[in-house]
Design goal:
The complex is a heterodimer.
Chain A: H1 6-12, H2 16-28, H3 33-52, H4 58-75, E1 91-96, H5 104-115, E2 119-122, H6 129-139, E3 143-147, H7 154-166, E4 174-178, H8 184-190, E5 194-195, H9 199-210
Parallel strand pairs in A: 1-2, 1-3, 3-4, 4-5
Helix pairs in contact in A: 1-2, 1-3, 2-4, 3-4, 5-9, 6-7
Chain B: H1 2-19, E1 33-34, H2 35-40, H3 45-50, H4 55-65, H5 79-85, E2 90-91, E3 104-105, H6 116-121, H7 123-135, H8 145-175, H9 189-197, H10 199-209, H11 211-220, H12 222-232, E4 241-245, H13 255-275, E5 280-284, E6 303-307, H14 313-320, E7 326-330, H15 332-337, H16 340-353, E8 360-364, E9 367-368, H17 374-387, H18 419-426, H19 433-451
Parallel strand pairs in B: 1-9, 4-5, 5-6, 6-7, 7-8
Antiparallel strand pairs in B: 2-3
The chains are: A alpha/beta, B alpha/beta.
Chain lengths: 211, 456
């Protein structure tokens, strides 16, 4: 990876003031919003790396997502419609399965995926089976991530995967599960392709799938 | 009745003895929360949450079918009380969820980032004026008729619930010979902020943006939290006080953040409970392995630690098992998806390694999940009886004492209207002041403690 820009570096260091200051300077200087987002994404990738290396923990991931959200709010008025879809690495559909309303883990995954250049279609929490299937079909996503915090969701995750089979698209999509009650035993039961032990693992699997 | 008393004492001795790291006859079987017992009763989750008259029936059925169990506690949420105040931090089965989906906590921010000073300087006022109107839908218009009646009903319902819980505890003890695994509850001060007040996102950004305020608040709320925990604990000090430790796990906080923000106030609070003559049952949620060595800093044999599924219980035994009792070892997925043979094999290994030399209690990772297969639960019990035997008797002397240790002083009690204020308003007192002051202060303290029940 090339040397990080000052903005990306400030984000990696979680220097909130410096990040906001640099963003304002760049906007004032007429820099396109998309370039600024690109720099921020490099910063987010750096944060993911630090998490993998055991330097950063969830508090840093959550705080960086907060900073990024403030940056995006600043950039919003400067984004053109044509900017939105630019240079997506691929589509990932995400959601917390039916009955479960927890979303902290899923949101961290979404932030890191976005930072890594993916287009994230986040279906939210308590997502019905059909919604997963329809969205995968509609978007042609090659990765589906299902999140859960409660153990009663094991059969729900299996139901989604069975429905993907019934819809004839199971072999077109890689299914990743994650969340506290998940492990290899659960992955095998529900028939998912991968169990991601943490958010960064989920992002890395998505990168593999999209090459 | 006599044999129930004997049974009760045998079970309690075994449970208390294991916690104290003393020799016992076999590995106790004692989940903290036994959600499986609720499912096993045949009641829907809505019935369990709403109909307190069914609790004793459910306990009876469970204990009759699983008499080898050493302690039982199920069901802690009572829907009618939630409805009376319009408590909006939980989704309840049958009300906001299908009748057979478990209750769930709703993440959110109930204290604003700029309110730390209010919390620190006057927690009671802060809870009453800022937090409760946000978490009680019935308090949307404070001072209205509806709000007044909500408070009135809440006090009545709380007393009703206390009566039902007491009756249930006596039924468990006298009719079923069954102790409880824990009574009373306290959070870690950091979790009090993280769960119900600032929310996870709030607290995780606060430790970066305003670390000093977080630390100051954690310390400031300790006395109130300890008092509220003692008020709900077993008056006879037989059972541990429950401490569900949510956000101390890896990887929420780095070990350095844990040492800075989580542990110091938690340790102080735990020591205050231990000083008051209690043991603690701490649920180490998630993976605590980078942090659980701290349990060595607490008095030996006073803190039973539940190891959650993601934590490595064998490592826990090696890291601090000589200092504190450990419970757990069967993950949710094993109890729900596994087979009786797999359970047997796991229990054998647990008894041989973690149970060696005592200090071990058989349990799931914190709880027995709702959807555990009955045949797996049965296999867990049978295998524990087979592999978890140490001797044919427990000589441990039962710990049961209504009095705190000599010289113990409770933390300063929080009140809204101190006696001095009331006394000044009364002007001259004609008779015995103590007769008036005693009840006044008792109910002030009860009301004040109650305020702390609504922040997680």
């Amino acid at each position: 990876m090339a040397e990080l820009t000052a903005l990306a570096k400030a984000l990696v260091e979680l220097d909130e003031e410096q990040v906001m200051e640099l963003v304002k300077q760049k906007l004032d200087a007429g820099e396109p919003a998309m370039n600024i987002i690109k720099e921020c994404n490099e910063g987010m990738a750096g944060i993911g790396k630090r998490f993998e290396d055991g330097v950063y923990f969830l508090s840093e991931l959550i705080f960086s997502a907060e900073i990024l959200q403030n940056v995006m709010a600043e950039l919003e008025p400067h984004l053109k419609e044509s900017d939105q879809k630019a240079e997506s690495r691929g589509i990932v559909v995400l959601g917390t399965v039916k009955g479960d309303i927890h979303d902290i883990g899923k949101n961290i995954v979404a932030t890191l995926l976005t930072g890594a250049g993916f287009e994230v279609v986040d279906l939210g929490v308590d997502v019905p089976t059909e919604a997963f299937v329809e969205k995968v079909k509609e978007t042609g996503a090659k990765v589906l991530g299902m999140s859960a915090l409660l153990s009663f969701t094991y059969p729900e995750m299996k139901t989604v995967i069975d429905a993907l089979k019934d819809a004839g698209i199971r072999d077109k999509v890689t299914v990743i599960i994650g969340g506290a009650p998940c492990n290899e035993q659960v992955r095998e039961f529900v028939g998912a392709d991968y169990y991601a032990i943490d958010a960064v693992t989920g992002v890395n699997i998505s990168k593999q799938v999209y090459g | 009745m006599e044999d129930k008393k004997k049974l009760f004492e045998e079970r309690l001795k075994r449970y208390q003895g294991a916690i104290a790291l003393a020799p016992v006859d076999r590995v106790p079987i004692a989940a903290g929360a036994n959600y499986f017992a609720e499912t096993y009763s045949g009641l829907t989750k809505q019935q369990f949450v709403y109909d307190s008259s069914k609790w004793m029936e459910a306990d009876k059925k469970f204990v009759e079918d699983f008499p080898e169990v050493d302690a039982l506690r199920s069901g802690r949420i009572w829907g009618p009380l939630h409805d009376i105040v319009g408590y909006n931090m939980y989704k309840l089965p049958g009300r906001d969820l299908p009748p057979d989906v478990q209750f769930q906590f709703i993440e959110g921010e109930r204290m604003k980032a700029d309110e730390y000073d209010l919390l620190i300087s006057n927690p009671g006022q802060f809870l009453l004026e800022r937090v409760l109107p946000r978490v009680f839908n019935e308090l949307k218009e404070p001072g209205s008729m509806r709000a007044h009646v909500a408070f009135l009903k809440a006090g009545m319902a709380q007393m009703y619930l206390a009566g039902a819980m007491k009756q249930r505890a006596l039924h468990l003890q006298n009719e079923l010979g069954m102790p409880q695994p824990m009574v009373g509850v306290m959070l870690a001060p950091f979790d009090m902020l993280a769960d119900g007040l600032r929310g996870l996102k709030g607290i995780m950004t606060d430790i970066h943006r305003r670390p000093d305020k977080v630390l100051e608040a954690c310390d400031a709320i300790i006395p109130d939290m300890v008092n509220a925990a003692l008020a709900t604990a077993d008056p006879l000090r037989r059972y541990p006080i429950f401490m569900p430790l949510h956000r101390g796990c890896h990887p929420f906080l780095s070990p350095k953040q844990f040492d800075t923000f989580y542990w110091p106030s938690l340790k102080k609070a735990m020591l205050m409970l231990i000083d008051a003559g209690y043991t603690i049952r701490a649920f180490l949620e998630g993976d605590w392995s980078p942090n659980w060595h701290h349990m060595r800093e607490l008095p030996k044999g006073k803190v039973l630690c539940d190891i959650d599924g993601p934590g490595d219980i064998f490592k826990a035994k090696a890291d601090f098992g000589d200092c504190q009792c450990i419970a757990g070892g069967l993950s949710d997925s094993l109890l729900i998806l596994g087979t009786p043979d797999e359970i047997r094999e796991r229990v054998r290994k647990l008894c041989e390694v973690v149970g060696r030399d005592g200090g071990f209690i058989m349990n799931g990772g914190c709880c027995i999940p709702y959807d555990a297969k009955p045949e797996n639960y049965r296999a867990m019990i049978d295998a524990t009886l087979e592999y978890g035997r140490y001797s044919d008797r427990t000589d441990f002397e039962i710990q049961c004492d209504p009095n705190p240790p000599a010289g113990w002083k409770p933390p300063k009690a929080g009140v809204i209207t101190p006696w001095e204020v009331k006394k000044a308003e009364l002007g001259h007192i004609y008779g015995d002041e103590e007769l008036i002051k005693g009840p006044w202060e008792m109910f002030e303290r009860m009301a004040y403690n109650w305020l702390w029940a609504w922040t997680w």
